[in-house]
Amino acid sequence: LGMLSKSVFAVSFALILLYINLFIEVEGIGVNWGSQASHPLPPATVVRLLQANGIRKVKLFEADTKILGALSRSGIQVMVGIPNDLLAPIAASVAVAERWVSQNVSAHVSSNGVDIRYVAVGNEPFLKAFNGTFEDITLPALQNIQSALIKAGLATQVKVTVPLNADVYQSASNLPSDGDFRLEIRDLMISIVKFLSDNQAPFTINIYPFISLYNDPHFPVEFAFFDGTGDPINDNGRVYDNVLDANYDTLVWSLQKNGFGNLSIIVGEVGWPTDGDKNANMMYARRYNQGFMNRQRVGRGTPMRPGPLDAYLFSLIDEDAKSIQPGNFERHWGMFYIDGRPKYQLSLLGNGNGLIPAKDVHHMGKKWCVLAPSASLEDPQLGPSVGYACDHADCTSLGYGSSCGGLDLAQNVSYAFNSYYQVSDQLESACKFPGGISMIVTRDPSFGSCQFKVMIKSDSSGGEVSTKMCLTRSVAVLLLLLMCMYIVL
């Protein structure tokens, strides 16, 4: 066909290679997708959000039928979770485990084409705060789910795991090489690790430098990030300049000391919140998550485990109905607001572009509920009304050091009233607090960094998810054809 045709083929070949490399580059990006929101985005909208941002893996905390349905044939790998409150019945009965696997794994894999790779049995069941509640039932539940997967013929494709908090191991000297499993659960941990190893399943660990900082005001802040500006730890020649590497390798040493040094590890949760605490802010969240993604992109691992980590960012979207028992920050881990808007500039793909927002999201009208100008701040109805509003809505941004921590008393009241009004779908009755102390306005009362929300319209529909994975396969086929034609020419 001549040199011109060969040049065209060469250019096409290069473009297709570039296109495919984009997908290879982001293959390891995973996120946690939680659903504890008063007004969640439609699952199909979220799936399109994942695809638009090159996210190829999701970790779910439960087996939500609508979410799994939206993930059908999406090209996204799935870790589906079993909540802690289901561990007891599953541990007590293989039949219950088989029924759970049939309904929540087999049905979606076979009928809907959902690419389920893992079942997460429980979520941090050995937290010290649980006082041993789940210690006797987690391993039996794990065993029964594995038996159910074997019976369903899925044990090769779908692996079991238990997402654990990093408090299951420790180091008396703070050196990773002194790491071992926590004494009171050491025998249990070794049994679980052996079970995972026997079934070629991974160890899943959640690592949170933010929590270290939250729990210890004297924690060295710079050591939480990946800039290399903190004081390093030298562990027999292995140098650690951030807490994630040190924590991860403490686990590696714990596994190695007990005979399982080659067990694969997944970081189930890693991230930084943006509100609800003085150290939970946009600047720190971007610094942490971008630093983590930068090291992933260049393939940096830890001193004990070189290479990029298999990890899931925590989390995708804010959850305004999540428990705040651990702290007000719990509702603000998302890279995106509850309506799918990016919070800050974050490049996941390494191309300098930021996050892509969710499409076709519809908000309610531009109306807010605020303290009436005629209301007295001495009104005895004020305190109980604010308490009621915050008990039924989200006021976590009002705390010290949070995005709305600088409001005056009247603005605090307005924020609380509006939060309740928005969660209540802007019902007129939701802005009728006793004594006529509230009113609806159409002028945005947001102040500085404090945003007064307008809630999204909650809608279970979302349309069909995109066919990006099919396109990717088509491109691969086209690449092969071009290669063959180029060779013939």
Automatic annotation (TrEMBL):
Give the E.C. number(s).
Answer: 3.2.1.39
Asked if the keyword Transmembrane helix belongs to this entry, the reply reads yes
A Pfam family that this protein carries is: Glyco_hydro_17
Q: Which domain of life is it from?
A: Eukaryota
Instruction: Tell me where the transmembrane regions lie.
Output: 6-24
What region holds the X8 domain?
367-452
The record's PROSITE patterns line, in alphabetical order, gives: GLYCOSYL_HYDROL_F17
Its catalytic activity? Answer: Hydrolysis of (1->3)-beta-D-glucosidic linkages in (1->3)-beta-D-glucans
- Which InterPro entries does the entry link to? GH, Glyco_hydro_17, Glyco_hydro_17_plant, X8
| Keywords tagged on the record | Disulfide bond, Glycosidase, Hydrolase, Membrane, Signal, Transmembrane, Transmembrane helix
Q: Which family does it belong to?
A: Belongs to the glycosyl hydrolase 17 family.
List the protein's name. glucan endo-1,3-beta-D-glucosidase
Q: Per the UniProt entry, what species is this protein from, by scientific name?
A: Brassica napus
